[in-house]
Design a protein that fits this description.
single chain; mainly beta; Immunoglobulin-like; 3 domains; four-stranded antiparallel β-sheet; about 50% strand
Length: about 350
């Protein structure tokens, strides 16, 4: 009997010990090359830890971490713990032509280290040990370091409209290699008397060509409620997350944000539809003009169901796009021009 009890206790200990070994797991990891507007360049390794319930761990639970390059050579790293509270994520959906936000904020933490070793193409290996002595392996591929443009912070224009929505525009990069799949990420942080308190920020991802973000008033109010200023910057990144560039940071006082009045200058657009002379079956050709209240053609960006163009140059103010219909059989047409209220119209062919 005693022997049976002893065996049961030993078995229970093994089970409990085994479960303890999986108290945490590695949520994600990356190897990355970064470039900044001031000319700084470096490589970065990072990972995040979540608990057994899949929730990000907000305390520092990692005792050590090692990194090995694709040849098995150890890369010298010194991981730092970081956390941020109340992050809201959003983005522009090119298929529906809508801005989409997750209205529920979430807390995040991560570990990161800059390293000097040259990057190699292949699979990197993290060996991570938690404070209980348990070890975790994480493998992450790296492709190649690429040259990406840096968004100029002096091209930023930030303002609010009469409904309390926040709009930020910037100069779209003139050229990015067509072999690269890229996007832009905008980070906006609430500042309280110039201080960021690791809380209350918005992260927005948009297609590289869009050149603007739109933050609905009920989202932007969350930042206004906790501070009197903003810090923001814009990244260009490859979609495999191997490469990023960062603009200079810009600090804004909320009281200084210009306001576009409800009766302010607007964009006007005409539109003509053609379903016959199209290259893609089932798509619609939409064409027309974009101009101000005086009838002057504008250099503007036109968006329609994920397709875009700029009405600049010799035929300023003239646009023509071939677009798919959305799930409702409609076309959502946008026109954007700095200093003017944007144009939006939903068209049913």
């Amino acid at each position: 009997m005693k022997k049976q009890v002893l065996l049961i206790l030993i078995s229970l200990f093994i089970v409990l010990s085994g479960n303890a070994a999986y108290s945490y797991s590695i949520d994600w990891s990356y190897i990355q090359h970064r470039s900044y507007a001031d000319g700084t360049e470096f490589n970065k390794a990072s990972f995040a830890v979540m608990d057994a319930g899949g929730v990000c761990v907000m305390d520092d639970v990692i005792a050590s971490a090692k990194l090995y390059d694709p040849d098995g050579i150890e890369v010298k790293i010194d991981m730092n713990f970081n956390n941020a509270y109340n992050t809201i994520y959003g983005g522009y959906n090119g298929y529906s032509s809508q801005w989409e936000y997750n209205y529920e904020s979430r807390d995040e933490s991560w570990y990161s280290s800059v390293f000097d070793d040259p990057l190699k193409s292949g699979t990197y290996h993290f060996v991570i040990t938690d404070i209980d002595g348990n070890t975790y392996d994480s493998y992450k591929d790296f492709g190649s370091a690429e040259k990406l443009p840096v968004i100029r912070s002096d091209s930023f224009h930030a303002y609010k409209d009469n409904l309390g929505n926040f709009i930020l525009t910037w100069e779209v990069p003139a050229y990015i290699s067509t072999r690269l799949s890229t996007s832009v990420k905008v980070n906006i942080f609430a500042l309280d008397d110039g201080t960021y308190k690791n809380a209350d920020n918005i992260s927005i991802r948009v297609p590289t060509h869009v050149g603007r973000v739109f933050v609905p008033g009920n989202i932007f109010q969350k930042l206004e409620a906790v501070g009197n200023g903003l810090k923001l910057y814009v990244q260009v990144r490859t979609n495999d997350n191997y490469n990023r560039t960062y603009s200079n940071e810009v600090i804004l006082n909320l009281s200084d944000l210009p306001l576009l009045p409800a009766d302010g200058p607007e964009i006007t657009m005409t539109s003509t539809l053609d379903s016959e002379n199209v290259v893609n079956p089932g798509w619609i050709k939409i064409s027309g003009e974009v101009f101000n209240k005086n009838g002057t053609g504008l250099c503007a960006m036109i968006l329609a169901n994920g397709q875009h163009m700029f009405t600049c140059g010799d035929n300023q103010g003239v646009y023509e796009l071939e677009v798919p219909l959305d799930a409702n059989g409609e076309i959502t047409l946008f026109g954007f021009c700095d200093g003017l209220l944007p144009f939006k119209k939903i068209i049913t062919p």
